[in-house]
Amino acid sequence: MTAPMIEVSNVTRHFRRKPDLAERLAMRAGLASPPPTVHALDGVSLSIDRGEVVGLVGESGCGKSTLGRIVAGMLPVTSGTVSREGRDIATLRGAEERAMRLATQIIFQDPMSSLNPRKKVVDIIGEAPRLHGLAERRDVRATVEGLMAQVGLDPAMIDRYPHQFSGGQRQRIGIARALAVNPDFLICDESIAALDVSIQAQVINLLVKLRQDLSLTLLFISHDLSVVRYISDRVVIMYLGRVVETAPTDRIFAAARHPYTQALLEEIPRIDRRGHRFSSVKGEIPSPVNPPQGCHFHPRCPLAMDRCRVERPVLTKASPDHAVACHLDGGTGRPLTNAGVKTGDLTPTS
Amino acid sequence: MSLLRPESMASRILRGLLTSPKATIAAVICVVLVVSAVFAPLIAPQNPYDLTEIDFFDAKLPPMSEGYTGMTYVLGTDGQGRDMLSAMLYGLRTSLAVGVTAGVLAMLVGTALGLLAAYRGGWIDTFVMRFVDLMLGFPTILVALMILVVFGQGVDKVILALVFVQWAYFARAVRATALIEAGKEYAEAARCLGIPAWRIMFGHILPNCLPPLIVIGTIQVASAIAAEATLSFLGIGLPITEPSLGLLIANGYQVMLAGLYWMSVYPGLLLLALVFCVNIVGDRLREILNPRLAQ
Amino acid sequence: ADLTIGRASEQSSIDPQFSRTGNNQMTSTMFFDRLVNFDENLQVSPGLAESWTNEDETTWTLKLREGVTFHDGSPFTAADVVYSLERADEVPNSPAPYTDMVSSVASVEAVDDLTVKITTNVPNPALMEDIGRVFIISKAAAEGKTSEDFNAPATAVGTGPYILDEWRVGETLTMHANEAYWGTVPEFNEVEIRFISNDAARVAALLSGAVDVIDAVPPQDVTRLEGTDGINVFSTPSGRVIYLGLSMRGDQAPAVTDLAGNPLEENPFKDARVRKAISLMIDRQLIVDRILGGSGVPAGQLVPDALGGHNPDVAPDAVDVEQAKALLAEAGYPDGFGLTLYSSNDRFPGDGDIVQALGQMLARGGLKVNGVEALPYSVYSKAASAGDYGAFVFSLGSSTPTSAPNLQALLGTYDKEAGKGAFNRVRFSSEAFDAALADALQEFDEEARLTKLRDATALVFEETPIVPLYWQKVHWGLKDGLTIDAGLSEQTLPQKITSTE
Amino acid sequence: MTEALLEVRGLRTWFETPRGTVRAVDGVDLTVGRGEILGLVGESGSGKSITGFSLLGLVDPPGRVIEGEIRFHGEDLRAASPRRLRDLRGNRIAMIFQDPMMTLNPVLRIGTQMIETVQAHARVSKAEARAMARDALGQVGIPHPDERIDAYPHEFSGGMRQRVAIAIALLHKPDLIIADEPTTALDVTIQSQILSEMQALTRDMGLGMIWISHDLGVVGQLAHKMAVMYAGRIVERGSVDEVLDTPRHPYTRGLIDSLPMENDRGQPLRQIPGNAPPPLNRPEGCPFRPRCAHATDACLAEPEETGTPDRAWRCFHPLGSRLTEVPA
Amino acid sequence: MTVFILRRVLQAILVLLITSLVVFLGVYAIGDPLEILLPADASMAERAQVAESLNLNDPLPVQYWTFISSAVQGDFGRSFVYNRPALDVIFERLPATLELVTTSLILSLVIGIPLGLIAGVKPRSLTDESIMTGSILGFSLPNFWQGMMLIMIFAVWLGWLPSTGRGETGTFLGLRTSYATWDGFVHLILPATNLALAQIALVIRLTRTGVQETMPLDFVKYARARGIGEGRILFVHVLKTILIPIVTVLGIEFGSLIAFAVVTETIFAWPGVGKLIIDSIKMLDRPVVVAYILVITAMFIVINLVVDVLYSLLDPRIRGRAQ
Ligand SMILES: Nc1ncnc2c1ncn2[C@@H]1O[C@H](COP(=O)(O)OP(=O)(O)OP(=O)(O)O)[C@@H](O)[C@H]1O
Ligand SMILES: Nc1ncnc2c1ncn2[C@@H]1O[C@H](COP(=O)(O)OP(=O)(O)OP(=O)(O)O)[C@@H](O)[C@H]1O
Ligand SMILES: [Mg+2]
Ligand SMILES: [Mg+2]
């Protein structure tokens, strides 16, 4: 088998302001403490095969966007490596680096803020291909029109400004802009969160079609589990900077093993479940500045044991394609039973 | 979502101006002033900069007097016998040139440095901002004097002095806005698409920093004109044979108490009218360009 | 205060020997006396020295005034004179020391309490004029003190008509009359001097009644003040001459061009005919009337008629454009040439306007005026002295009884070593004149000296070494009922202000 | 059946802009009873938030409530004086804004903002107000309310801020809460936490609630009744079960069909063709007509509401009662 | 906080060093102090003596080095004109200027903010239009002209207020201040107004813009939705939010006020440092000019620091970052 498209191995990313001279002096003199560190990613490993759609799920602030940016080569890692087709992207230089950059594109969460309000669609989509020599100056319009048609936008709207489009249409402009540089890998960072269901459906359909037509590889970041379930081949669940579970989509939904995943699945809002009694989660969401010892989830986990408070669970294979990081059941979590874990059970144990 | 026909910037501004009668009048006056300044040599009864054309015998005549040469001085003459009307038209020309050029140049320099500081951050940011501190601490007079010494007297030198002092304001203002804009996802998207940094700064971020720039710009144009007047008042401004509005006011100010009011009141009124209209138009422009305020 | 004066400029110290700029001398004259007095025409009369005699050409004996006391009540003695004359050239960091005034003094000794013997190193007929400029301070109060200490009454102890109360820097100087003064005790007891440098503000202060007297009334406001009820204007001519310098310094004059605007090969100002022609183009009376509102007297030489050495036969040139053109043609410039005129803009009233007027006149006289520049004095003075300007307007004040020092400094051949021609910015040089002046300066007989000076003046102005324009008039604005006795000195002294009734 | 707490009839809120009139809300009828949750769903820009603001008299100029009747406990709010409205707001009627991240003043402490709300409606001392604020924070599950009350909004996580907004809404035990999409950007476990809070409140305190959302799943689980908005109008309303199981309006149907379902994988999602009409340029007659598969010439006329007071729709061609009858 | 201040101090030292160099060179370039200091009839010998005693004969780098090495020990040289330590000369006059500048800053806040609030609450109303029109007058006419008008009207015609000098001063907490006596206070009115006019205009405009842009924000609407009164919304919610730009700009303006005080002080014969500096520049009194600029720059750095600290007081979001 060839190397996977993307191989993230043991990546850690801390955000920490670099202390300047004054700060170092003060620290030396004991007048100041080192600036706080945000542990956005903490030893994350992940691989994505060519043509695969991977869903990335996790709560707000757990490091999903950070991971996306690192994979796209826009943020350097603190430690660990990201390789693309077997080559460490940090070692690429010059033309190779540029090619890698262009081959990986991100579609941002907020379609309005990711489009420059003062540029016409033709410029938004056409600028990069023209700069990179993918289209001649005089062919740019034609290229852009082609792309617009491809994402289902009326090419007649080529001279409009972003504010003259609807949310779904804007999202497609973002997609067209990314496709314009012929990427083979797309990162969709919560690209559909702010859209209402009918528009959401348009965008998802488009992504699926593009995947089929262009054999794109997708990293699909979302907190909407029904969409993730619909679109992805495999799901990765993150919690506070760590991957806690990864498995093929069907397996996750049928037999999740990590307590956090199970809680997530339990709480998916479904229209066929009426008059549901929501249950309240107790326990504060820990902060990435000061993550808890051991398993990050233990303060909220109903099944937490003493071991969970001190020892970090490693990602262990429960079956060939299903990995879990939980001390339960020999390090593989507890399979989802019909009864499952109710959120109500997720009370702090201490 | 509105899917109306895109409206060009120019027509949007024009329509915005026309909806406010006050702004319309102000804009018309601005245009009239600018046109008469530009065509001053054609309109003015006299070339006040030509020493052979002005006559000493006609010095300090009140408005509507008839001079030695038979010419009627509608607004009187100054201490050298210059026709005030002509001097004001030419002076307006100089003042506009000084105000606008200094304003625009300061804007360019300040904007470029402010953008750079915001986008690059780190030591560049610190360096530029401390430099701004330094500039803001320097008295305008000292800068003007130094420039006067090193480069001599002239309109261009005054402009240089004003730019020196004013760019710092723009740099500060732009940096503040650009910091916010640079954090938006469109800038990140542009980087992701491999667009060079300078292009992101000037092509993507800058256009979104324009509204505050316009406000500061209009105020700075006015204050450049006033600052030039103050420099002239202190004797380090323009060459005295080519008076600007400010210099006329400063000169006339000397004889105010002697009752020769016309030498500074008329240029003062003209300056007031100019600044007034520029500001009204500027205010309106800001409203038009702010989607929240445009109605 | 009984009297409030608005004064344009402020002294830099009250130490009377710190600096001899006009300002400082003016302030010192309020609190201190000198060995001699200078009257309004700057002529010498006995002061703290009652009389003086020459033993020989280099030995002088001074008899001091009896019964004079310092402000602190201590008697004035010969020791104070010795101390003052010895200190005069060694005040630390003085920006304008009295060095020259005592440079000819070899030694000073107190013979008894009221007699001083002075020996000079060269024969100096003008010794009393020189040392007479030095203010006498109290040895007891000043010994061991710095100039700064003088800014408070404890050290600023003199014998003058007023006693210092307080100096608030930049703001006011207050004093009260010295009741024990040996001369006339001044009329106004409590006096406050306010420093108001801005012309318009000073005039406004008088108009609003905030001050009773102002000095340096700007010429343009004279008419207005004269027409105001309750205010009088008092004017006197001063010894300050305003002139146009035409640089003869190099083979080419700076900023002098041919008609096409290229630098001229030769220096036209080296030709006396050109200088005369330029002088003939200028309508001095018109400048005085139009720009100065009458505040000037057209000048044709350095000093006005009140001063020694003035030659009544040397009249100011009258305008004569025809003759000017003829002279130019004769000198080889039938169509004139181009030049730029320079001036300061903050040195004396109307300086910026005058240079423009000159521009107009020279243009009418057939020259091509390429430009007129008026610059702040700080910038202008350096460049003018460095010879950066071909044609420039400058002024020179006179603080001596005769024209001799000014003739020497302005028109004597420039000689750095001998210290001659210090202000000869145009680098005029005439052997005949140098000799005539030297001869005059060695003449001990007063009358003969003045005659020789008059002749030297006539001789040198034949060649138009500079173009004198006018002598400045100075004005004071006073409330009704007050009058000032000023004279050529340009000084505003409270002891010289009296009520008219 | 519950007694009517809020009754809205024929509400129209228009924005006069230089380019024309935006009919943001164009004839809305609503009824909310005690202890009842009304889910309000619809396309983005259909006027859900403006409806909420209209009820409180908080529409920003150039917007204006043109006509309609708003009765709260039988009192006509449109005729109420500004004073009276101010007394009601935050007191009897509370609103939780769409984005609570933006709605708390960033430069004032949480406590300050809560205390001022208490004191705006009750004559209590600062200390008492503070105690009330602290209790309210505790009630919505903020740990250590005594300390957290002095924090600034930015020191709270998104979920916590949302809970602060709820706590503020509850300070005066209002009769009606208007909650405008407060959980859009949160992960499901935290969302569930907030929803449980709301549910408990309606149940225990008998307050009525309007829950604005585009998440049909949430509405389905939380609300008792629901209303579907399209282009400024309510196109369908009824109990949650009725509307979700047997939608009568083609738009409602389209929305439900757009949801990805478990067994949808591999097939394209059913999206509603076309786009929402531009607010300035709405088509004549039924605004959904250009996107509707059942449209006929009849739809050129304005559809009236048909049905019972509890179950109604605006459509000339309502769908049948069984899903299978509808052509895909 | 310590770090924050330490960092600023390090930067400040650098800034001051550069400033001193620039000014030193600049004043050197402008002219020759000897030309100006010496009386017109001074001889060559006197010239040489003065040059020697003021150290003007040394090469410029030596002069600069001498200056810097003694400046490090707190000695900024002696004024050429006054023969007193340059710092003394400056500090003697600085309080008068600071009093003037502070008074006009306070005036501009006390008058500007309420007017700006009134104008901003009802944009385009008659009140708004008149306030805005009036404010344009504030900055469109040169400062010296406005000053003269004030003198003409209030001192010469009406005779209500004095127009020159500082009047009687008293000491309050060891500082000489015009506030201590009625006479001093009256003397302060005209110059402070003159200096404040442009600032008032600026504050009005800033406040109005701020109000206009803050009022539509969600938190204002939310405050209304909570039943908070309009007064509290305006004076607590809106005002606190818009104070940040106002404080920033006033921080910058403090510098230009001190600079413009030159003109006001000249016209009103106010014995402040502005008049001193323009005289010193004209007299080429280099030690005073250099020391003045260094003092002002240092003051500016301190003000910026204060502004930044105020920032964090006003806006808690910045607090974490600034420290
Ligand atoms: N540039 C940065 N500097 C400091 N901290 C950062 C930076 N970028 C992200 N973080 C922190 O890293 C953590 C992870 O952020 P990230 O944006 O990856 O979360 P996320 O999973 O995408 O969250 P969301 O669902 O809200 O988008 C957060 O706590 C965030 O505050
Ligand atoms: N100030 C305004 N001027 C003009 N039109 C406005 C204004 N405010 C809102 N609108 C219009 O009113 C309509 C309804 O807006 P509203 O905010 O109620 O939508 P919504 O249903 O809440 O949408 P979302 O789900 O996106 O929050 C929109 O078409 C919007 O464009
Ligand atoms: Mg994210
Ligand atoms: Mg909404």
Automatic annotation (TrEMBL), chain A:
NCBIfam families, per database record: oligo_HPY (TIGR01727)
Residues covered by the ABC transporter domain: 6-265
Gene3D superfamilies the record matches: P-loop containing nucleotide triphosphate hydrolases
Gene Ontology molecular functions: ATP binding
Record bears the keyword Ribosomal protein: no
Protein family membership: Belongs to the ABC transporter superfamily.
Broad class of the protein's primary localization: membrane
Entry membrane topology: Peripheral membrane protein
Protein name per its UniProtKB record: ATP-binding cassette domain-containing protein
Stored Pfam families: ABC_tran, oligo_HPY
Keywords from the named record: ATP-binding, Nucleotide-binding, Plasmid, Transport
PROSITE patterns to which the protein is assigned, alphabetical: ABC_TRANSPORTER_1, ABC_TRANSPORTER_2
Subcellular location: Cell inner membrane
Keyword Translocase: no
TrEMBL record, chain B:
Membrane topology: Multi-pass membrane protein
Membrane is among the record's keywords: yes
Keyword tags: Cell membrane, Membrane, Plasmid, Transmembrane, Transmembrane helix, Transport
Record field: transmembrane: 21-44, 96-119, 131-152, 158-174, 213-240, 260-282
Gene3D superfamilies hit by this protein: MetI-like
One Pfam family linked to the record: OppC_N
Domain ABC transmembrane type-1: 92-282
Localization terms from the record: Cell membrane
Keyword Calcium: no
PANTHER family assigned: ABC TRANSPORTER PERMEASE PROTEIN, OLIGOPEPTIDE TRANSPORT SYSTEM PERMEASE PROTEIN APPC
Protein name, per record: ABC transporter permease subunit
Provenance organism: Ponticoccus alexandrii
From TrEMBL, chain D:
Membrane topology: Peripheral membrane protein
NCBIfam families: oligo_HPY
Annotated family: Belongs to the ABC transporter superfamily.
Originating organism: Ponticoccus alexandrii
Major subcellular location class: membrane
InterPro entries associated with the record: AAA+_ATPase (IPR003593), ABC_Ni/Peptide_Import (IPR050388), ABC_transporter-like_ATP-bd (IPR003439), ABC_transporter-like_CS (IPR017871), Oligopep_ABC_C (IPR013563), P-loop_NTPase (IPR027417)
GO MF terms, alphabetically ordered: ATP binding
Pfam families cross-referenced by the UniProt entry: ABC_tran (PF00005), oligo_HPY (PF08352)
Highest taxon of source: Bacteria
ABC transporter domain location: 8-256
Subcellular localization: Cell inner membrane
Region span, Disordered: 253-279
Keywords, alphabetical: ATP-binding, Cell membrane, Membrane, Nucleotide-binding, Plasmid, Transport
Keyword Acetylation: no
Protein name: ATP-binding cassette domain-containing protein
From TrEMBL, chain E:
Keyword presence, Membrane: yes
Pfam families: BPD_transp_1, BPD_transp_1_N
Main location group: membrane
Membrane topology summary: Multi-pass membrane protein
Subcellular compartments: Cell membrane
Keywords attached to this entry: Cell membrane, Membrane, Plasmid, Transmembrane, Transmembrane helix, Transport
Chain segments annotated as transmembrane: 12-31, 100-121, 141-160, 180-204, 242-270, 290-314
Domain called ABC transmembrane type-1: residue spans: 94-311
Record family assignment: Belongs to the binding-protein-dependent transport system permease family.
Protein name from the UniProt record: ABC transporter permease subunit
